[in-house]
């Protein structure tokens, strides 16, 4: 039986990892997508879509498919999935690591908060026109703000409840610095709300806000489960897998990395 790596995906890093692993003879790689985006983009290797039924269901899947290693490469704010993955790996006895890009360094005019609810309480004190780039999930936290004008950007249309005064922009990144600056100026934004997703793809909006001297409300990312090993990039995961996958499981000449 070939070694089998399960990637919990949905991020740019997960696709890069799948590409690196799928090119190796004698190694099976499966990427699992939650299915929240209708057009997630091409992924190398095998792909499955949908949930597992919690930690217990994932543990059963790991055992049934003889998974050699589990890599959680989901979004840094996929807290429930990350917790379920850690528990499932423990129960099934499968080596497990998290691929999580580093967060952003705090800027002088950033206002870190612990949750979307805390962000919603802070926004009215900082501005009247907010650019809300926290994704289409969790907008309920801002639904009660009746005096704030929101511009909401999302890959797919968000579902209600939504803030009563909001304009929806459907767009998929990455976005350039000039495009982000134009957006903030055109919509007369005076406060930016975002999550500490990290990475370069979404950083231009922060640089644009800095250039315009706008306050930024940043939701801190949740802590990892206790004992979980985190890697900052694909190379780190490949190095970790080299110590987890037996040479015969990946092909003696093609052991990762």
Explain this structure:
30% of the residues lie in helices and 22% in strands. The protein starts with a strand and ends in a 7-residue tail after the last helix. It is built from 8 helices and 12 strands. With 257 residues, it is an alpha/beta fold. The chain has helices at residues 12-22, 54-64, 79-92, 116-126, 177-186, 204-211, 234-242, 247-250; strands at residues 3-8, 27-33, 46-49, 69-72, 96-99, 110-113, 129-133, 149-154, 166-170, 191-195, 216-219, 230-231.
What does this entry show, briefly?
This protein has helices spanning 12-22, 54-64, 79-92, 116-126, 177-186, 204-211, 234-242, 247-250, and strands spanning 3-8, 27-33, 46-49, 69-72, 96-99, 110-113, 129-133, 149-154, 166-170, 191-195, 216-219, 230-231.
Q: How far apart, in Å, are the first and last alpha carbons?
A: 19 Å
Biggest sheet descriptor: 6 strands, parallel
Radius of gyration: 20 Å
Strand content: 15-25%
Gross morphology is elongated
Q: What are the main properties of this structure?
A:
about 30% helix, alpha/beta, about 260 residues, 8 helices, disordered C terminus, six-stranded parallel sheet
List the helices and strands and how they pair.
Elements (H helix, E strand, L loop, with lengths): L2 E6 L3 H11 L4 E7 L12 E4 L4 H11 L4 E4 L6 H14 L3 E4 L10 E4 L2 H11 L2 E5 L15 E6 L11 E5 L6 H10 L4 E5 L8 H8 L4 E4 L10 E2 L2 H9 L4 H4 L7
Helix pairs in contact: 2-3, 5-6
């Amino acid at each position: 039986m070939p070694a089998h790596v399960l990637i919990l995906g949905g991020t740019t890093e997960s696709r890069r990892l799948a590409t690196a692993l799928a090119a190796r003879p004698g190694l099976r790689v499966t990427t699992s997508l939650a299915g929240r985006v209708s057009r997630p983009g091409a992924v190398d290797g095998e792909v499955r879509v949908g949930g597992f039924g919690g930690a217990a269901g994932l543990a059963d899947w790991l055992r049934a498919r003889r998974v050699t290693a589990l890599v959680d490469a989901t979004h840094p704010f996929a807290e429930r999935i990350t917790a379920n993955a850690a528990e499932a790996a423990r129960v099934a006895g499968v080596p497990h690591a998290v691929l999580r890009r580093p967060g952003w360094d705090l800027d002088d005019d950033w206002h870190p908060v612990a949750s979307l609810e805390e962000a919603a309480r802070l926004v009215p004190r900082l501005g009247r026109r907010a650019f809300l780039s926290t994704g289409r999930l969790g907008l309920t936290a801002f639904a009660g703000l009746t005096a704030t004008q929101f511009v909401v950007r999302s890959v797919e249309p968000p579902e209600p409840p939504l803030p009563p005064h909001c304009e929806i922009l459907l767009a998929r990144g990455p976005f350039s610095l000039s495009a982000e600056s134009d957006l903030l100026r055109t919509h007369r934004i005076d406060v930016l709300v975002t999550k500490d997703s990290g990475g370069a793809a979404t950083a231009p909006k922060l640089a644009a806000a800095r250039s315009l001297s706008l306050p930024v409300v940043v939701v801190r990312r949740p802590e990892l489960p206790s004992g979980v090993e985190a890697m900052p990039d694909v190379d780190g995961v490949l190095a970790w897998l080299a110590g987890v996958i037996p040479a015969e499981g990946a092909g003696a000449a093609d052991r990762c990395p």
